[in-house]
Amino acid sequence: MARYEISIKGRLDPSMLTDLGPFEADEHPAVTVLRGPLADQAGLRSLLTRLQDRGLELVEVRQLDADEPGE
User: Fold this and answer.
1) Which pLDDT score, from 0 to 100, does residue 12 have?
2) Residue 4's Cα: distance from chain center in Å?
3) How big is the CA angle at 49 (ends 46 and 51), to the nearest 5 degrees?
4) Cα–Cα distance list, 27 to 40, 52, 70 (Å)
5) For residues 67 and 43, what is the distance between their CA atoms, to the nearest angstrom?
6) What is the mean pLDDT of the chain?
7) 39 or 18, higher pLDDT
8) pLDDT tens-digit readout, 10-23
9) If you placed Cys at 23, which of 33, 36, 57, 63 could pair as Cys (CB 3.0 to 4.6 Å)?
10) Phi and psi of 14, rounded to 5°?
11) Which residues contact 32 (CB under 8 A, 6 or more apart)?
């Protein structure tokens, strides 16, 4: 299982964070950074589709190294 860091423009509603799954969220003034595990590429694609369906603007997606906690 790989860990990802996904940056989204703006701030997310708390209920939306709950709907997205087991992600840690760091909110900054202009960006929300989600970090968490995804089982495979299909899981990543599903999450990205859900973000797009909610009208959220994707800033960056990166796969974290196994020993990288994220920032």
Assistant:
1) 87
2) 7
3) 115
4) 25, 19, 14
5) 21
6) 89
7) 39
8) 988 888 888 888 89
9) 36
10) -55, -35
11) 7, 8, 10, 11, 12, 25, 26
Number of neighbouring beta carbons within 10 Å of residue 51? 19
Sheet holding 58-64, edge to edge: 24-27, 31-38, 2-9, 58-64
User: What distance in Å separates the CA atoms of residue 44 and residue 31, rounded to the nearest whole number?
Assistant: 19
Residues 23, 35: contact at Cβ < 8 Å? yes
User: SS3 for 29?
Assistant: coil
What does the DSSP assignment read for 48-66?
A: HHHHHHTTPPEEEEEEEPT
67 residue type, one letter: D
Encoded amino acid at 11, one letter = R
Return the amino acid letter for 49.
T
